[in-house]
Specification:
This protein is mainly alpha-helical and 313 residues long. Helix content is 65%, strand content 0%. The chain has 11 helices and no strands. Helix 8 packs antiparallel against helix 9. The longest helix is centred in the first third of the chain and has 29 residues.
């Protein structure tokens, strides 16, 4: 029998009074307290020199890297590895949050983790009026929300109408600092929610061939007449081609970031195998030996099922 919970238990902040609703919540809270206290020790005088030197700015790369490593572990269906990598994400996120807690004490330009988490919970309650009767999102909520698609549409409506995030363009909701591939994907998703989307997959596919043709023409133009203008034109057409491929990926329900990351890993595995085989047979890796390197590549492909079995949770 599926366990039910008291929805009212999350409606109010608890301050220093934990009062966990059940043993599972109590254990999770205790484990987070242990992590938080460890970070305070590491950042305190007499703690770790490296941890004390870090700032939110210096931790940005570590946070991004840990997220990608966690995504990889989840994608490999490796439960133990996912546990480790998600723990590292918790560590980095909590570390940065604690740094802002320290800033609050130093100059008032920060906040506490309690503030951060309570704001998060209140936002989630506001955006789930179909679950919580007390939700502020009720003012714009749809009456009968029963599918994931309807939930996401309602979520966007609450962000725009209740939280005041409309802006001049819906595309303003996509951070300009996102990596270009991710930003293209997110902007396309936003535009599609406003009805600006191909009605089917076929014209999306046709657009790829159209952009590929234009990129070929731009490349030929640059070859015939090398110039900065023609170089910029080629870059523009290649950008359009990549944008079209991202759109095709989105229409198929595939996240291009995850797909490209998997392709990068696959290329690394196969190419490193080729390097190893060439080294074993004292074969120089040059264009003259491409056919042999292709043979090694095919061997790498054939052996992947044995070398990389799929793990199940």
């Amino acid at each position: 029998m599926e366990k039910t919970f008291d929805k009212n238990s999350v409606l109010e902040p608890r301050g220093a009074n934990l009062q966990a609703s059940d043993e599972d919540s109590a254990r999770a809270a205790a484990a987070f307290c242990r992590l938080y206290e460890l970070i305070r020790i590491l950042r305190a005088p007499g703690g770790c020199p490296w941890d004390r030197e870090q700032s939110p700015m210096s931790m940005r790369r570590d946070l991004v890297e840990e997220v990608f490593e966690a995504v990889d572990a989840i994608g490999a269906d490796d439960a133990e590895h996912a546990k480790e990598e998600l723990g590292d994400v918790f560590l980095n996120a909590t570390m940065v949050s604690y740094m802002f807690r320290q800033r609050l004490e130093e100059n008032g330009q920060g906040w506490t983790i309690e503030d951060e988490l309570n704001e998060l919970v209140e936002k989630l309650i506001r955006r789930h009026p179909h679950v919580f009767e007390q939700s502020q999102g009720k003012v714009v909520a749809d009456k009968n929300v029963s599918t994931s698609k309807e939930v996401l549409a309602q979520w966007d409506k609450i962000k725009e109408k209740v939280e005041g995030r409309e802006g001049e363009s819906i595309l303003d909701q996509v951070p300009a600092g996102f990596p270009p591939l991710l930003r293209a994907y997110k902007m396309q998703k936003k535009a599609a929610k406003k009805g600006f989307d191909w009605p089917s997959l076929e014209p999306t596919k046709d657009k790829i061939f159209e952009e590929l043709k234009e990129a070929d023409e731009a490349a030929a133009c640059l070859k015939n007449e090398p110039s900065q203008k023609n170089q910029i034109h080629l870059e523009e057409e290649i950008g359009d081609l990549l944008f079209a491929v991202v759109n095709y990926s989105r229409k198929l329900g595939v996240d291009p970031e995850l797909a490209l990351n998997a392709a990068n890993k696959k290329f690394y595995r196969r190419f490193s195998f080729v390097e190893k085989k060439c080294g074993e047979q004292n074969v120089e890796m040059t264009q003259d030996n491409l056919s042999l390197m292709d043979k090694f590549w095919d061997q790498a492909k054939a052996g992947e099922k044995q070398c990389f079995p799929k793990k199940k949770f």
